[in-house]
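Journal club prep, shared notes

We agreed each person brings one worked example of a sequence with its structure written out as tokens. Mine is Glycosyltransferase, GT2 family. I'm keeping it raw so we can talk through how to read the token line rather than staring at a rendered picture. Sequence first:
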Amino acid sequence: MNYSISVVLPNYNGKELLDRYLPFTFQALENSKCKYEIILVDDASQDDSVTFTQENHPTITIIQNAQNKGFSFSCNQGIMAAKHDLVLLINSDIKLAPDYLEKLLPYFRDSSTFGVMGKILDKSGDHVEVAAKIPRFNGYKLKSDKQVYPTTSLAEKIPTTFLSGANCLLDRKKLLELEGFDEIYSPFYAEDLDLSIRAWKLGWNSYYEHEATCFHLGSHTTKNYFQKAKIKEIYFRNRMLFHAIHMDRKDLKRWKLYILWAEVIPKVLLGQFWILKSYAAFKANKKEIRQSRKRIRNLMMKNRGKKSLAEVTTTIHSLLLNKELTAL
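Then the structure, token by token:
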């Protein structure tokens, strides 16, 4: 089957990165022999990103946001404008290997595939930063901090809890049915986990392909434009939001008590008062949480999806049985 690809590239003050890495994206697209388009979503950059792109890559479609609204919003702008079968989400600080897309395309022969991503190496190319994410529960919290990759070259598919928003290839129709990223997580963190979990709940699988390689400069935008304390505050808020949205109804009350007594209060007693900002921001989203839970419930009814968060975890572990894996 011949596929077509829409590249969605969110950008904020990334002129230098665009200059450095866009040629590698073009090369990977050309090597895939797919019809393609590139959509740059500029999130109110203050540098010359837009002018640079217009002058040096006139075939790229540019969407300009009047205000900076973060990763989820920018990606959704591009996703809604995309015209092709598959959507490649890629960050401006990612360098693709020439055969990156060729390694990913075969996964979409299976109609149950939601998306796939390759491994992310650090800029030196010596260390794997991102591989397949393996889910586990710690109390009432879902964690995906364990990462693995196949020990040997395998023809078997390796599932992953979620696909990194920095380098994943997705089925556009399924992505649109999920309505893209949930913007409750803006400006960043947990939106890609949420997206893949919603897909898993509907019976759509996410995979990791170790033979597909890309390189990561680093958290360029986040580290440059947000203070460390603010990043931590957002991270913990979004972790609370994720669980409030995806936790089974029967466990929700106990989880809320768990968060308060096992996470918020102990941190306050240790003088980590920033957690109060995270908790207050989480509590301020009650209406949005209810809306997100309702959207997932309606999608599951429409698609006859029945998987709970625990069942998604069990499914992923069952797909990993008897596979030779190396942990990062």
